[in-house]
Amino acid sequence: MNDLHTTAGKPFKHPALRLSMIAVHVLLLQAGVAHAQSADTNAAPAAATASPSASGTSNIGTVTITGDGDNLGTGLMVREDEPKTRSTVTRAEIEKERATGNVFQSIGLLPGVSTYSYDASGLFGGGLSIRGFNSDQIGFTINGVPVNDSGSFAVYPQEFLDNSNTCGMSVTQGATDLDAPHVGSTGGNVSIVTCEPENEKRVRVSQTVGGLNLTNSFVRLDSGRFANDMAKIFVSYSHAEIDKWKGEGKAKRDHVDFGFRLDLNKENYVTGTLNYNRAINNNIYNPSLAQLNQNGYYGDYASQFAGHLPPVKGTAQNEASQSPAYYKLSQNPFENVIASVTGVFRLTPTTQVKIQPYYWYGFGTGGTQQYVLSETGFLNPATGKTGLGKDLNGDGDTLDKIIVANSSVTRTDRPGITTTVTQQLGNHQIQAGVWFERAVHRQTGPAVLVNADGTASDIWLQDNQITGPTGQPYESRNWKTVSTSWQFFAADSISMLADKLNVTAGFRTPHVRRDFTNFANEGSNSGTSYNVVKDYNAFLPQAGVRYSIDDANQVYASYAMNFRAPPNFAFSPTNGNVTFVNGQATVTGNVKAETSNVYDIGYRNESGLGVFSGSLFYVDYKNRQATAYDPNLNNSVYTNAGRVRNYGFQLEFGTVPFHGWSAYASITNNHSRQLDNLQTSATTTMQTSGKDYPLDPSWLLGLSIQYAQPKWYVRAQTKFTARQYATLMNDEVAPSYTTVDLDAGYRFNNTFFFKNPTVRVNVSNLFNRQYRNPSSVQVGGGSGTVYYYLGAPRLLSVSLSADFQ
Questions:
Q1: Cis peptide leading into 324, omega within 30 of 0?
Q2: DSSP classification of residue 132
Q3: How far apart are CA 640 and CA 632, in angstroms?
Q4: CB-count burial class (<10 Å; 0-12, 13-18, 19+) for 797
Q5: Mean pLDDT of the chain
Q6: Of 262, 263, 422, which Cα lies nearest the Cα of 348?
Q7: What is d(CA 121, CA 41) in angstroms, rounded to the nearest whole number?
Q8: Which residue has the higher pLDDT, 23 or 370?
Q9: Which residues contact 539 (CB under 8 A, 6 or more apart)?
């Protein structure tokens, strides 16, 4: 994906994994905040498809979500009972969203969540923060499997489940769950759950078409119960394409989901899922503010290739670097697999064990591949510097500079296993477990020749790689990171006073060993191989108390300490944290684990109107990690920003339907302050103390209003995002913005052939609002350039789905 799926080490070959209306009436309010955009929110009885899993309950993996979305009307809120702050999106909401949407879009209206998409379809990915924690500081799981990048902790939501197979998502703001398998989560976690196979045999088909030549074809087959009603499986396939909203190029995705359940008896079962994703996307250009002012909102990569110069022996052909690059030389091909099996076994009437082995695989590249390579840009082993020559254009000399395709390539192989034991002892429910994972992360920078038409000879940068004079493949970087992670966790949940009072206390002990190797490579002045091994670990306590005043009112308080190890690229030669002391590579930079202490006090109320939840929060950071990312070059730089304080409040309210009307609203206020000045060199200090921390809007407001009847619904959603700083020095600002989405659906009567035939209409960014979001934190003060993801224009799509049984 768009990035740090990087690779190092000697080149490797890409394994063969390829498989190969309704008119809508709008009611919108324009009071105070304009109208915000959104993810989507509702679940009207009319729109819900009739299936057991559509009710919002799923047990696949390590998370159980039981959705009250239909009862509350919107599907964006359920009745929580945990002594911590959590928000949930149910199947009732997800099924109303655009079929190509991703998790960032789905949770966009929840409190504390600031999110944006690179395009309206969701196929290009997006950005997210929760209470000011960036997505790479939030732990993400699918059915209990960690899916953050093992090196950088980045999240690529366009790789995950098809919306049609997603039954629920929960966001834990602030406190990372005790049993969550993460070593890179200081801001909470997001859990995504797959819908189980259906109990009855069924075939579901869906077709989506829309603007920008959007198309999404989906088919899912459910076996129903078989083998004496013990087993059931499903498999689905989807193919999606959409043109970029600016410039040339498109996104193209093929996706397979598979799931099974085997009930050994009433108390013992085995479930499993497999997700395969293969996407080839052209990148969307992300400008700096200066580039935005110069080229305009729709400025993008070049539509014409600059071309090669005719080769002439004895004459230097210096092919010009093209800026922006040619669009066919800025692509993001990537494929990945997420597979897991979960066995739940009851050993005694009060003892249960759960075992979940899993495997994560990823391979691909990203960023801009167009690169001008000097024919003398190859490493001389004798000097440790570049200077050896290789004729690239076949003219018999080594005087030239030639346009080639080069960028980071990453392969990740990541097996792991989690084992959990739950014991009931009177009013105590004790849970303890162990998680282990070993991720091998290879990040290389190979190059291949570019054809006369400007296309790379292999977009995966694997076939016919350019080699240097020594016969070794050219590599602009060559890293191998082995990250061995494990943790023990334990908790006791005590129910007292007929469950009016619940007290939970526990801890987890995450540990990760970063074994980082930089190999001397053909393509840079990094002529010295070195190895760095660093261990990071912590003891992380948690505690929570929940008291039910009566059936309608509840209060709670929680505390959690969280932990995030440094990303692997902090040890690379380009980040300046590794120096040689007596010939040995030594980490001398301020590369420390980030920790956060999170405190929440909350109140919940359930009435005839609906459900309300509110909380006050305070976060104390140490060694806050700021990653400056260049989305065009696909490079990241690590910075330790020191101590940071966050505090604020969040509120959410979901109504029950009233004469067909229902609503959901969320409000978040967050203040984030830096407490330390930033030392950028031995002699330079930036005056950052007292300034706001970037990428953290102080206000977020979300609203969804729906009107539903038994066969149809219409809803409008709006999201306001306050202005946010883009730099630690607070010298560049992204303005506030408000967006609006509109959705509607109609379910026709069943026919002899079709069951639940349903048409849905989705309109994103209804008023075509233009806005921008910073791609990452920059220092500012003249250090580093801020690049922006721009808001996509209005997009209309129509989906038609039906079941065959």
A1: yes
A2: T
A3: 23
A4: buried
A5: 88
A6: 422
A7: 16
A8: 370
A9: 507, 509
Please check whether residue 348 is in contact with residue 297, taking contact to mean a CB–CB distance below 8 angstroms. no
Output the six-digit token pair for 462.
Answer: 């694997």
**Does residue 748 surpass a pLDDT of 60?**
yes
| Measured distance CA(428)–CA(350) in Å, rounded | 11
Query: Backbone phi, then psi, for 246, in 5-degree steps?
Result: -145, 145
The helix (H) or strand (E) run that includes residue 663 is strand 661-674
CB proximity list for 93: less than 8 A, separation 6 or greater: 40, 41, 42, 43, 69, 74, 75, 76, 106
Mean pLDDT of 553-575: 92
For residues 395-402, average pLDDT: 95
Least confidently predicted of 62-66, 92-96, 507-511: 62-66
Mean of pLDDT values over 351-361: 98
Interatomic CA distance for residues 127 and 149, integer angstroms: 15
Instruction: Tell me whether strands 188-194 and 139-142 are parallel, antiparallel or unpaired.
Output: parallel
For 301, phi and psi rounded to 5 degrees? -60, 155
Q: How far apart are CA 135 and CA 128, in angstroms?
A: 5
- Identify which of 51, 53, 41, 44 has the alpha carbon closest to the alpha carbon of residue 71: 44
- Best CA proximity match to 512, nearest among 571, 428, 432, 557: 571
- In this prediction, residues 739-750 reach a mean pLDDT of 96
Spatial separation of the C-alpha atoms in residues 612 and 664, rounded to whole Å = 10
Q: Give bridge partners of residue 359 from the DSSP assignment.
A: 339, 415
Residue 633 pLDDT class (50, 70, 90 cuts): low
Contacts of 426 (CB under 8 A, 6+ apart): none
Residue 747: C-alpha distances to residues 49, 70, 133, 756, 772 (Å): 9, 16, 40, 6, 37
Which of 606-625 are b and which e, b meaning 16 or more Cβ less than 10 Å from the residue's Cβ?
Answer: beeebbbbbbbbebbbbbbb
Residue 295 backbone dihedrals phi, psi, to 5 degrees: -100, -10
> pLDDT-based confidence at 34, cuts 50/70/90?
very low
- Tens digit of each residue's pLDDT (9 = 90 or more) over 43-77: 333 333 333 333 333 444 343 333 333 456 678 88
How does pLDDT run across 526-541, given as a tens digit for each residue?
668 899 999 999 999 9
Q: Are the C-beta atoms of residues 371 and 404 closer than 8 Å to each other?
A: yes
pLDDT at position 590 is: 83
Give the whole-angstrom CA distance, residue 27 versus residue 32: 16
Report the distance separating Cα 491 and Cα 497, nearest Å. 20
DSSP 401-455: EEEEEE--EEEEEEEEEEEEEEEEETTEEEEEEEEEEEEEEEEE--EEEB-TTS-
Q: pLDDT at residue 708 above 90?
A: yes
Q: Which two tokens stand for residue 19?
A: 């498989």
For residues 79 and 99, give the distance between their C-alpha atoms in angstroms, rounded to a whole number: 27
pLDDT at residue 527, rounded to an integer: 66
User: What is the largest distance, in Å, between two alpha-carbon atoms of the chain?
Assistant: 91
List, for residues 199-217, the tens digit of each pLDDT value: 999 999 999 999 999 999 9
**C-alpha distances out from residue 2 to 150, 179, 279, 463, 629, Å:** 16, 30, 11, 21, 11
Q: What is the pLDDT of residues 418-451, one digit of tens each?
A: 999 999 999 999 999 999 999 999 999 999 999 9
Give yes or no for a contact between 263 and 269, defined as CB atoms under 8 angstroms apart. yes
Rounded Cα gap, residues 209 and 217, in angstroms: 9
